[in-house]
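Reply to dn_fold:

You asked what the input looked like. This is it:
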Amino acid sequence: MNIRHYGTVFLLIVFASMASAEDKAKADPSGTWRWDYEMNGESFNDSMKLVLKKDGKVEGKYFGRDRTAKIEDGRFVDGKLEASISLDFDGTDVKLTFSGPVKGDEIAGNVKADFNGENYEFPWEPKRSVKLEDVVGTWEISINAGDTVREPTVTIAKKEGKEEYEATLVSQDGNEVKLKDLKVGDNHLVFSLLTEFNGGTLKADFKGRPYGDKVAGSVQFDLDGQTGEGSFKGKRKADKKKKD
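and this is what came back:
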């Protein structure tokens, strides 16, 4: 048995191989888009959390100026995103329609505003970014290692009463492992597993890129000097308690 295969087997045994060589992302607007702008001398920071469905429909929410709105008529066709929201500004109905081509993690588009029958148009240049708050939830991971498929879950949650987050891996058998060094950098989710195994120490470093409710990445591990790497992809479970 070569070193790489040996290391992979051990990683699967502890169900920590939830990470892996990052899949090449297809054109997809899923994720959190953030942008800054000024209006009447004030600065604002708005965002949208989007999820692309199989039929090209885009769902999600807008957050900005102390308001939240559900995405309406969202669609993604031929690399171009279009999404609308309806807001109430002091009793006046306003419809905003955002559109533009998605190129990597950037959009160079515009937003059209229908304000009380008057139409306006402004530049819209959001950037997709990942923060820990964007990856909270339970992720179902699929690991394929030859004839073996493992499906652990990883749950990321905010600590109660604190501005900190924690992550836990649970195997198919219900074994639970606390993950370490949870952070986000360069739009990648990073964490580590450190555990004892058969008298030795297994260390696994995970790095994955989330796109909305999907994630894919790589893992590098070391079992007492024997190293290896693997790949994973996963999907976040829907939160049935969350209301629109």
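The radius of gyration is 21 Å.
Hope that clears it up.
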